[in-house]
Amino acid sequence: MTQSLPQHVRLVEVGPRDGLQNEQQPISVADKVRLVDDLSAAGLSSIEVGSFVSPKWVPQMAGSAEVFAAIKQRPGVNYSALTPNLKGFEAALAAGVKEVAVFAAASEAFSQKNINCSISESLERFAPVMAAAKAHNIRVRGYISCVLGCPYDGEVAPEQVSSIARELIAMGCYEVSLGDTIGVGTAGATRRLFEIAARDIPREQLAGHFHDTYGQALANIYASLLEGISVFDSSVAGLGGCPYAKGATGNVATEDVLYLLNGLGIDTGIDLDRLIAAGQRICAVLDKPNGSRVARAWLAKA
């Protein structure tokens, strides 16, 4: 069923966490703080600042507490962190974090390879996090990865994704982001996924997270808009590669999504010029080219 396009879309900026976590070189706390502050100043209302995980597993996320302490928190902006277990949640709570995220996989093989447990075991691990979050009045957002395909299992049934999303909502997640981790999804498959998920979950509790590995991310976002979805995850300058496809791009660039939404007359509250400047600044720090096509074109004509 085609919905009318939403009038407003909320972009969840994942660059500071999902975008930076796979970088090989060390990134200073000051540079991370500058990135978050630049994104806040550009008008992003939801920013995933970091992750409270063992630095042994994700070295780039060491210092997340220091980043939270130093950023200029603006009223009305959600500054969240990934907390995969109770220890991480407690560290986030101590750092003053007001919103956390947990993640599950839609495929058994990916769950085993990624976090060494089954899907049902991963959901059980969230139970103490959800209970602690409820006790401290902390909002929890859920992620599901590999919703449109798995590097090990191949196709993933939309009904399987919907079932996991229902469990996350029942556990207390206010919103569940459905992620095409390897970027194999197409517009038709995306529409079918959201149409099936929305049979049991209100569309306003569903979000999309698309990778551009096959160049389909913007098409999939448009398909999601047609299904009434109005929240999308994206990463400034397209930061964050896809570890399952050598040399492939990962997260869709926030600048590219914003250009699409601006062209559709959809309000986001985000300033494109400031967003491009934020992306350029972090790319200079990382000494890498900007992964946003819009940013590159914008700067070429400047």
From TrEMBL:
> Is Lyase set as a keyword in this record?
yes
User: Which GO molecular function entries does the Swiss-Prot or TrEMBL record give?
Assistant: hydroxymethylglutaryl-CoA lyase activity; metal ion binding
Q: Which reaction does it catalyse?
A: (3S)-3-hydroxy-3-methylglutaryl-CoA = acetoacetate + acetyl-CoA
> What processes does the entry annotate via GO biological process terms?
ketone body biosynthetic process; L-leucine catabolic process
By its UniProt entry, which InterPro entries does this protein fall under?
Answer: Aldolase_TIM, HMG_CoA_lyase_AS, HMGL, PYR_CT
Q: What is its EC number?
A: 4.1.3.4
Under the heading Gene3D superfamilies, the entry gives: Aldolase class I (3.20.20.70)
* Keyword Amino-acid biosynthesis on entry: no
Into which EC class is this enzyme placed? lyase
Protein's UniProt name: hydroxymethylglutaryl-CoA lyase
Q: Source species, please?
A: Halopseudomonas phragmitis
